[in-house]
Request: fold
Amino acid sequence: MAVNLLLGLQWGDEGKGKIVDVLTKEYDIIARFQGGPNAGHTLIFDGQKHVLHTIPSGIFHPTAMNVVGNGVVIDPIIFKKELDNLDKLSVDYKSKLLISRKAHLILPTHKLLDAASETSKGKAKIGSTLKGIGPTYMDKTGRNGMRVGDLELADWKERYDSLVEKHIKMIEFFDVQLDYNLEELEEDFLAGVEKLRELRFIDSEEYLNNAVKNDKKILAEGAQGSLLDIDFGTYPFVTSSNTTAAGACTGLGIAPNKIGDVLGIFKAYTTRVGSGPFPTELFDADGERMAKVGHEFGATTGRPRRCGWLDLVALKYAVQVNGVTELMMMKADVLSGFETIKVCTSYNYKGEQITHFPYNVEEQNVTPIYSEFAGWAEDLTEMTSDETLPKNLKDYIAFIEEEVGVPIKIVSVGPDRNQTIMR
Ligand code: IMP
Reply:
């Protein structure tokens, strides 16, 4: 089958960038299908760290084509910065990066609206990355948005101006204190638009379906994670797109019967940035240790991530919604040195023991029930084969596979491309 999907199964930050980078050599095309620069995909190779926000993680590969699909929202200001970084590294992106005409544009005022909306929510704020994601998707579904293809129209600037005018009135409606210099923001935006114009705008659904017909191998690269999905995540503490498998069909124009393997990525424990329920969250030394050893700080915002034990109730839910066929376990090395490893296998939900992910997962409704495993002391970061992994880790892996019913094909033992064990 031509199109495989790669998705995060938790609350994002599972390490998708690294795995796409590792797998790129098997694919002709890497395509992003949803989200925008709220994502931060980190790749580490040759001792250098690279963070991509909108550009697919195949851009460093010499031959893979990279498509930003119609489901993505693009901020020309951030996109320009990403391209400037690639320029510095002499990466030839112009021949390898294609942009869907149907992708929507994030305007500077979308970001201001995001900030106004979050400020007005006070304590109930979502913890948005403030990249304008929600307001841009609102304009998309409200049928007011601007698309990349609009930049090819003679009157695009008038359309931009009238949308900005509308946004300014909306910002006033929020009645919150917001300091901004629209002229400066607009200057950056226009410079971003000019940079964007250096790339090829395409009808990406046509391009991708032709590629499918020609037996090209395509990897659809997800952003964020399944529990941030607008429909299936912990609403309203979610992002504004479908991060789950179906989002790849709508975000690329690829039919469900063209999808082959669904590769699900999860961390050996769990993290979350921003607000919202997190049943297995830890507030003790174990959680602090995960954050410290795992360098759990957001790649986009630098915010510290909340940490907790692996939640198999949530993982099984994500596997089901996505139809995951292969699992990839990240950051196993971070759990080295814990005397006991816990994994949540069911919830006490309003006094009843359940094994499915319910509508309300807030702490007043859900208490996690754990199974315990003996930990391992060995440092995994130099290990290169499955046979060398400690027995207690193997038991942990076997337990997860048994519970979830899907094989774990990759165990990642460090951030570098080379610290990847194929099973
Ligand atoms: P937004 O999509 O920026 O509005 O953020 C909505 C929620 O999703 C917030 O809790 C963010 O922290 C979270 N979020 C958005 N993008 C990512 C990501 O790439 N990784 C992890 N969390 C994310």
About this structure: The radius of gyration is 21 Å. The first strand starts at residue 3 and ends at 8.
